[in-house]
């Protein structure tokens, strides 16, 4: 079989609703590798937020920060930090509105304020504790993604005022902040270049709003049964819910394992 590359989202795709990797998923990932295919993770998470998953699945290629930090077989091949002036503009407005932010660098994240309930609850949903406080962190370190903590009805003002960044909601209380030209699609393209593979040989598996461009771009888009409606409309293959071994079943439907 011709070598393919398969991109896997984490939350709701690799991890089930209990935050666990199903045994069927572990076996499916191993089967992909046994069949000679590349397996890469494509996630909105920071690299330091899924080291354990990479280790458990023995995956050394990934697109992180929704495309802003890309690694191929253990080597960083692409970095796209948010411009500092754009972060400062956003941070000033967030401070005026008393909305917290988290700034995410290569190896660590820092919060703009102490003990904010939105920060605590959002990060707890991913299994992470409250970050250390350093509101000036973005002044002296490259930031590949930020988190803005506000409710849905409060986001439009930010979108209107900050055209140089993108906002993608991942939690009722939080959204990712990316460079305006950033997306998982761009990160996938960079990794494809490094692997020397074509779009036609690309499979992407996901469930969330931050997967839209990646699923649309890939040669074959495999969409989980638990996916948002907008993503299901783009599916080449729709599989079962993540809690019903959806990833493994989707890869079987695609003829990859």
From TrEMBL:
One of the record's GO molecular function terms: magnesium ion binding
Matching InterPro entries: Cof (IPR000150), HAD-like_sf (IPR036412), HAD-SF_hydro_IIB (IPR006379), HAD_sf (IPR023214)
Any single Gene Ontology cellular-component annotation: cytosol
Alphabetical list of Gene3D superfamilies matching this protein: 3.30.1240.10, HAD superfamily/HAD-like
Highest taxon listed in the record's lineage: Bacteria
Keyword Hydrolase (UniProt): yes
A family per Pfam: Hydrolase_3
Keywords per UniProt: Hydrolase
NCBIfam families assigned to the protein according to its UniProt record, in alphabetical order: Cof-subfamily, HAD-SF-IIB
Protein name: Hydrolase Cof
Organism: Terribacillus saccharophilus
């Amino acid at each position: 079989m011709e070598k393919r590359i398969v991109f896997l989202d984490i939350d709701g795709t690799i991890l089930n609703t209990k935050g666990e990797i199903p045994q069927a998923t572990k076996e499916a990932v191993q089967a992909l590798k046994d069949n000679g295919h590349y397996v890469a993770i494509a996630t909105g998470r920071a690299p330091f937020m899924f080291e354990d998953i990479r280790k458990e699945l023995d995956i050394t290629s990934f697109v992180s920060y929704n495309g802003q930090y890309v690694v191929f077989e253990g080597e960083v091949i692409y970095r796209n930090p948010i411009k500092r002036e754009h972060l400062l503009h956003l941070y000033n407005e967030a401070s005026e509105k008393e909305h917290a932010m988290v700034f995410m660098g290569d190896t660590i994240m820092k919060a703009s304020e102490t003990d904010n309930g939105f920060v605590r609850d959002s990060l707890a949903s991913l299994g992470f504790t409250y970050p250390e406080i350093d509101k000036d962190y973005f002044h002296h370190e490259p930031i590949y993604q930020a988190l803005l903590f506000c409710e849905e009805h409060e986001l439009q003002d930010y979108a209107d005022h900050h055209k140089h960044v993108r906002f993608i909601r991942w939690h009722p209380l939080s959204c990712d902040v990316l460079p305006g030209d950033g997306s998982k699609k761009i990160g996938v393209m960079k990794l494809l270049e490094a692997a020397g593979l074509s779009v036609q040989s690309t499979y992407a598996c996901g469930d969330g709003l931050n997967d839209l461009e990646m699923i649309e771009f890939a040669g074959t888009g495999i969409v989980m049964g638990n996916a948002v409606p907008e993503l299901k409309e783009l599916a080449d293959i729709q599989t079962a819910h993540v809690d019903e071994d959806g990833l493994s079943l989707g890869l079987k439907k695609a003829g990859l394992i």
